[in-house]
Write a sequence for this structure.
């Protein structure tokens, strides 16, 4: 999994920028810079290509020098390109909100969106007087489906199985080593 910076802009939305090496920048340097709208980098790369074709002789030695220079340039762009892109977005008004781990930028945006929903739900529950830890689901906004509630959100009754489990004194747990006094422990 890769790490991504999550950058948000009030008008332009949210973007995920990978941290570290960029394969597209390595293989498609000039075109990658144009696609990312990094005009200064694209102009610099184009100028380097033009100048190297003019000033480096078309001999075997010149070709070797040209290849070494382009390899070094592509390595530099691959290592620093994503950092430069994030810096460019920050100059355009984006602000870094978080860093997440994901497989690709779309997954990174989904992870960030889910974490924002979970945070909003936790804040809402806290403002409503706090929620019992038993009531919180995976993201904090789901209620325990085993309980019915009246219109005001108060617990009315629990399932009969839960009440029987509580009467047994095992805390409602069952299964291996769950504290059931009548069962045997299977390790």
């Amino acid at each position: 999994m890769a790490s991504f910076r999550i950058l948000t802009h009030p008008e332009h939305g949210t973007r995920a920028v990978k941290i570290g090496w960029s394969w597209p920048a390595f293989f498609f340097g000039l075109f990658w810079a144009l696609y990312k709208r990094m005009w200064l980098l694209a102009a610099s790369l184009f100028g380097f290509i033009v100048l190297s074709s003019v000033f480096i002789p078309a001999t075997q030695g010149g070709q070797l020098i040209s290849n070494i220079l382009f390899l070094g340039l592509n390595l530099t762009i691959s290592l620093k390109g994503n950092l430069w892109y994030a810096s460019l977005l920050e100059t355009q008004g984006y602000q870094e909100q978080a860093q997440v781990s994901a497989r690709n930028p779309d997954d990174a945006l989904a992870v960030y969106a889910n974490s924002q929903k979970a945070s909003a739900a936790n804040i809402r529950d806290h403002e409503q007087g706090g929620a019992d830890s038993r009531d919180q689901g995976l993201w904090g906004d789901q209620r325990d489906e085993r309980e019915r509630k009246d219109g005001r959100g108060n617990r009315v009754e629990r399932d009969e199985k839960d009440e029987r489990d509580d009467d047994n004194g095992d805390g409602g747990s069952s299964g291996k080593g769950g504290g059931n006094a009548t069962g045997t422990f299977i390790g």
